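User: Last request for today: this protein with flavin-adenine dinucleotide, please.
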Amino acid sequence: MASKNYDVIIIGGGPAGSTAATLLAKKGHSVALLEKAKFPREHVGESLLPFCYPIFKKLGVLQELTRRYVRKPGVRFVDVDGSSFTTWCFGHVLKDPSHLSFHVRRGEFDHLLLDNAKKCGATVKEETKVTSVDLSDDEGVTVTATGPRGGKQTLRGRFLLDASGRDTFLATRLRWKKPHDEFDRSALSTHWTGAQYVDGIQEGLLQIVYLGGEKKGWIWCIPVGVDRVSVGLVLNHSYIKKQKAKLAKKKTRDWKRALYTQELTSSPFMKKILKDAKIAQPLMFNGDYSYSVAPENKCGSNFALVGDASAFIDPIFASGVYLSMKTAELVSSAVSKKLKLSDKAGQKALDAAYAKVNGAYALVDKAIRMFYNPVAVNFAQVGSAESLIHEQHENALAIGHYLLAGDFFQRHEEYSKFIDLLQNPKLLKKYKAFVIDRPDFQSASCGISRVKVFHQLLQEHGEALRGKTSA
Ligand SMILES: Cc1cc2nc3c(=O)[nH]c(=O)nc-3n(C[C@H](O)[C@H](O)[C@H](O)COP(=O)(O)OP(=O)(O)OC[C@H]3O[C@@H](n4cnc5c(N)ncnc54)[C@H](O)[C@@H]3O)c2cc1C
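Assistant: Here's the final one, the structure of the complex with flavin-adenine dinucleotide:
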């Protein structure tokens, strides 16, 4: 079969793949993006970071996102019973419109990004699964895929971007994928309707309920619509195994659903939120979710790995989509230099891009370890310290907010040192004491109205309700 030639072939049409495809096509490169699924397809990862904002602008989708999605002014870390919490509002440090981020329905959001790549000139082939890749020729790559009706397709490209997500196309085949033993956790999640929109949910806050103890887990609660919350449960594997055995003894048929319900109702906070709520879609399971590929394997002379195809870290800080899109932006810019200028210029640009990318992932990794470290700062209680005694408290507070907003790439070295300080017990004690006493930080609210958060979604919801009543 005759093969088609492209500048760049991309495996996967998630946020990483479609970002790279759009930006490369906008620079005039011929791009083929191969996606095995038919979009829209469901996906976890609905709460986005403010630092995505400039990328959305560059892609040309910002306006559409502001029209469609719930706005996210910050994050609230909550103890299991809801009595102790800290609200981190992006508006404390971000003074432009990006302080209102987004909660998205991923099926739709990914579809929008993929369609945008098409509009910008990329050739997008859905229901086309890449089955093999030949990287042995330095001049380019040969990619073989199976199309919608099972037909085999062969494509030639000067460069390959693997954006295959957690399928980790290259890393699995080349045995580059290393599990992250410390973050040995799995997640169960679904959407609910009829939840109570209280305790910050009505103002769009992402809620992270810390479970602690042997569960080493947490619950996320994300308002993805006017009457739709996404609730996910994350637990350590050893705990899941024990609970699964217990449920099997009781002859429980659907252990995943039983475990999900059991853990949600064990949190008085979640019990209150979901008192009258009903599950609205099938339960999703995401297992073994943290892994990485060594920096030296992330790119070569004719390929590069972006997004979850190169690494995935525990999603506690809702960082995955931003890390993936920013990596795709940096790497596609370097690839463009390689194709337009020279191999040497391209390699230099790729090395510079991956220095930032690896620094960003290492920073997020460190911040997450701190989250799970029982003697380090507890994000739910950090706001409960009594007095303010540190002259640098403004900076320390700002760093916390910037980290939660996604400032991973530019200042990773600086922030990494700050996290080291926080893990020193003496300094941690000081930090706990000085971090509070600012009226805007003590406040439970980010001061964003329900109308601003749900904007025209409220109207759409109202119309839908009227429709139901009159039916
Ligand atoms: C439990 C959980 C909760 C999360 N919560 C958040 C959150 O709140 N916020 C956040 O930002 N991130 C979150 N994430 C992370 C986020 O989902 C990912 O980081 C993000 O989707 C990565 O984008 P990607 O484009 O790299 O991969 P994906 O979005 O997974 O896209 C990869 C695409 O490649 C396609 N593909 C795979 N193999 C092939 C093949 N052989 N041929 C063709 N196509 C192929 C797949 O069909 C898929 O569409 C969460 C992740 C998990 C597991």
